[in-house]
Amino acid sequence: QVRLVESGGGLVHTGDSLRLSCAASGRSFNPYEMGWFRQAPGKEREFVGGITWSGGSTRYVDSMKGRFTISRDNARNTVYLQMNSLKPEDTAVYSCAVRWSSFASYGYWGQGTQVTVSS
């Protein structure tokens, strides 16, 4: 069983930066991809971006390219989301998830961490 724990959220101002972490526990952790998602109040969860575990290839939703960067530390079983130039519309609960193969959907969600950006 895999457990994902996000951290690093908080209350920031417009233009600030935050780095979120997602630590995975569980033996033989070797997913195909780790992803970040977010859900704003009253909205559906949306995909932010992902990173392949072995090669470190990243992909992002177009609207977040340039401001958000995903990285990983395989030795620590941790994936990061660096968010720069934050805007009030980035306010959401940010969660990470695991995708075990290129044919699979995301699963094993973390509990999420709240990011609030004040104007």
Name some characteristics of this structure.
single chain; mainly beta; 6-stranded mixed β-sheet; 4-stranded antiparallel β-sheet
Model description:
The chain has 119 residues and is mainly beta. The mean pLDDT is 95. It has no helices and 10 strands. A hairpin with a 5-residue loop joins strand 5 (46-52) and strand 6 (58-60). The chain has strands at 3-7, 10-13, 18-25, 33-39, 46-52, 58-60, 68-73, 78-83, 92-99, 113-118.
- Rounded Rg: 14 Å
Order of helices and strands: EEEEEEEEEE
Secondary structure: number of strands: 10
Class from secondary-structure proportions: mainly beta
- The percentage helix is under 10%
Largest sheet features: 6 strands, mixed
C-alpha termini separation: 40 Å
Report low-confidence residues grouped into runs of 5 or more. none
Major β-sheet strand ordering: 2-10-9-4-5-6
- Summed up, the helix count is 0
Mean pLDDT: 95
Hey, roughly how much beta strand do the residues contain?
over 45%
Shape: globular
